[in-house]
Design a protein that fits this description.
Protein name: Cytochrome d ubiquinol oxidase subunit II
Low-confidence stretches: 1-15, 17-22, 27-36
Distance between the termini: 36 Å
Strand content: under 5%
Mean pLDDT: 85
Membrane topology: Multi-pass membrane protein
Helix content: over 70%
InterPro entries: Cyt-d_oxidase_su2
Number of strands: 2
Radius of gyration: 22 Å
Structural class: mainly alpha
Family: Belongs to the cytochrome ubiquinol oxidase subunit 2 family.
Strand order of the largest sheet: 1-2
Subcellular location: Cell membrane
Order of helices and strands: HHHHHHHHHHHEEHH
């Protein structure tokens, strides 16, 4: 969210919130902005532990060849959480702006490097074995750059879409429209980059390109249709339904990547069967995953519902209060 004012008076509500946010760490939360909740550690632990336990040769190859972008992504996650915490504890305006800038930059850096890692794997630049791939060119290449840019744009799009519904639920129609404009802009930008990426994949990752245009084509079409439907729902201010469409668009393209390179896990090196651990290990992983899901999913649902009810009640009390 930028602090650029809208044309006309009074100033844009989003610009006003940013100014209040710099002046007072809690101002945004008291005026309709939902409190951010970090959950990076949940999915990171999930992916890393399952990859290490179930497909250890892939884990070893990815971690040893791509340790530079993975380290930069981890530093971005750490900097993001630290900047948010330190900014709230800061008393000087320049300190809050400094930590706010650090928060914003790390929010761009982290998805970019994770997307670059995905591009390296998808383009076949991570061979099996310990550090068998080039530690520089494996992630500094056209497909990795495409993956990084798409990751940044899709994260920005999902964030804006989800914040639309939050702002609308809390009665701030102007802020919801501001987020909707950003969601539409980031969604269109994602579509343009994805179309340009066709030529990139054709030249730089031909096996992935072939899979996306053949076996995984239905999923690619599903992603495109869901994205267009989501943009239409945003313009009609159907923010809650737009969340589902946006999430489906992103999930479908991730499924398309998996389908496009199946059965390969490391293109040109390892298939699923070759990389998989013994049956006993995979069974233990599935059992542990099921037990964890029984605990985790209801807990996350309860946490989400508690925050939603607390925010809605706070807004209702604020709107219903009348001065004597």
């Amino acid at each position: 969210m930028t602090a650029a004012p809208c044309s006309g008076q009074p100033p844009c509500r989003s610009a006003d919130l940013v100014q209040r946010w710099h002046a007072d760490p809690e101002a945004g939360h008291r005026h309709g902005a939902p409190k951010p909740r970090e959950a990076n550690h949940v999915w990171l632990i999930f992916v890393i532990v399952l990859l290490w336990s179930g497909f250890s040769p892939v884990f070893a190859a990815v971690m040893s060849t791509l340790y530079l972008p993975l380290t930069l992504a981890a530093l971005g996650i750490i900097a993001r959480g630290a900047a948010f915490a330190f900014r709230k504890a800061s008393t000087e305006l320049w300190q809050r702006r400094l930590f706010g800038a650090c928060f914003a930059i790390s929010s761009l850096v982290t998805p970019f490097f994770l997307g670059a890692v995905a591009g390296a794997v998808a383009s076949g630049r991570v061979p099996a074995g310990l550090a068998e791939g080039n530690v520089i060119t494996s992630w500094l290449n056209p497909t990795s750059a495409l993956g990084g840019v798409l990751a940044v744009l899709t994260c920005a799009h999902l964030a804006a879409v989800y914040l639309c519904a939050d702002a609308d639920r809390e009665g701030d129609a102007e802020l919801a429209r501001a987020f909707a404009r950003r969601a539409v802009a980031s969604g269109l930008a994602s579509g343009v980059v994805a179309l340009a990426g066709i030529a990139v994949l054709h030249a730089d990752a031909p096996q992935l390109f072939h899979g996306l245009t053949h076996r995984a084509l239905p999923l690619v079409v599903l992603s495109a249709v869901s994205g267009v439907v989501g943009l239409g729902l945003l313009t009609r201010r159907r923010y809650v339904v737009a969340r589902g469409a946006a999430a489906l668009a992103v999930a479908a393209i991730l499924w398309a990547w998996g389908a496009a390179q199946y059965p390969a896990m490391l293109v040109g090196s390892l298939t699923v069967d070759q990389a998989a651990s013994q049956a006993a290990v995979l069974s233990a992983c599935l059992i542990a995953l099921a037990c964890g899901a029984v605990l985790l999913i209801p807990s996350l649902w309860l946490l989400h519902g508690t925050f939603q009810r607390a925010q809605t009640a706070g807004v209702s009390n604020t709107h219903g209060h009348t001065s004597p």
